[in-house]
Design brief:
The complex is a heterodimer of chains A (190) and B (62). Chain A is mainly α and 190 residues long. Chain A has helices at 6-25, 28-44, 55-73, 75-78, 88-95, 119-130, 134-144, 150-157, 161-188. Helix content of chain A is 67%, strand content 0%. In chain A, helix 1 (6-25) packs antiparallel against helix 2, helix 1 packs across helix 3 and helix 7 crosses helix 9. Helices cover 74% and strands 0% of the residues of chain B. The longest helix of chain B is centred in the C-terminal third of the chain and has 23 residues, at 38-60. Chain B starts with a helix and ends with a helix. The chains are: A mainly alpha (190), B mainly alpha (62). The A-B interface holds A 16, 20, 54, 56-57, 60-61, 92, 95-96, 99-102, 105-109, 112-113, 116-117, 119, 121-122, 125-126, 143-145, 147, 150, 161, 164-165, 168-169, 172-173, 175-176, 179-180 and B 4-7, 9-10, 13-14, 16-18, 36-38, 40-41, 43-45, 47-48, 50-52, 54-56, 58-62.
Chain lengths: 190, 62
């Protein structure tokens, strides 16, 4: 490890950083920019890393700030409505009967704390997040990955709280449905 | 105060992102005490919340 230059260490982490930048930004070009900015920031102040944490942890911290910068700069494009109907109405129609009762009782997911910390589960979770329509996915991950408050997201993207709540609501229902289909449903299968 | 499962599930999801007014909290509590399906949905949302928290840690710590 001591023989590796900071440049070569950073290069090793580039793919990892790109994966999360793409997941959040939904644009290869923006993700490349965010990761390049992260690398430049790391190279310009390597002394601020020291050895106080894992290099990747430090880089992810920088990346989150760079991603927020890009979301702020691209605010108009970030909030463009998703082209296709996002299917949320259909999803709700499938979940509930006309009288407002559940069409089918929700499945008991048990108490799967151990398996929810597994690499396989995280891969399914990321795939489900990736399937969200672009705008919905961006605001959902601003909330859940960048850990911004509702007020901060509204301010950064010039959204009304009502508009944001609708997007988050739909994202959570879709994520639940996707996890049910691709993880919890499969788990019970023989 | 009577709410359908559809309305209650919407409140449960909304609760992840905003504080509910007292009337909605009361309606939620009364419905959850009397319904068999909605508490299961509530536990699913809690599981999702925990899963997202673990995933966040995973991305910070691969």
């Amino acid at each position: 490890m001591p023989t590796l230059t900071i440049e070569s260490q950073l290069a090793e982490h580039r793919g990892y950083l790109l994966r999360y930048a793409r997941l959040q930004l939904r644009s290869d070009a923006w993700a490349e920019d965010a990761v390049s900015e992260t690398m430049l920031a790391a190279l310009s102040k390597p002394q601020s890393f020291g050895n106080r944490s894992q290099l990747k942890t430090w880089l992810v911290g920088i990346l989150k700030h760079k991603v927020i910068d890009i979301l702020r700069q691209r605010q108009r494009e970030v909030c463009l409505a998703d082209d296709e109907s996002d299917g949320s109405e259909e999803l709700e129609a499938l979940m509930f009967q006309a009288d407002g009762h559940f069409a089918a009782r929700p499945a008991d997911w048990g108490d799967p704390e151990q398996e929810l910390s597994s690499r396989q589960f995280f891969a399914v979770l990321e795939a489900c997040a990736e399937k969200l329509p672009a705008t919905m996915g961006r605001v959902f991950l601003m909330r859940e990955w960048l850990e911004l408050s509702v007020e901060e997201i509204c301010k950064e993207l010039q959204l009304t709280p009502t508009n944001l709540y609708v997007q988050l609501h739909r994202a959570r229902l879709r994520l639940r449905e996707c996890l049910e289909l691709n993880w919890f449903g499969n788990r019970a299968a023989p | 105060l009577r709410r359908t499962c559809k309305e209650v599930s919407a409140l449960l999801v909304a609760r992840e992102d905003r504080a509910l007014p007292v009337a909605e909290r009361l309606a939620l509590r009364l419905h959850l005490a009397a319904c068999k399906a909605c508490p299961v949905f509530e536990r699913q949302l809690l599981t999702m919340r925990n899963a997202l928290q673990s995933w966040r840690g995973y991305t910070i710590n691969g």
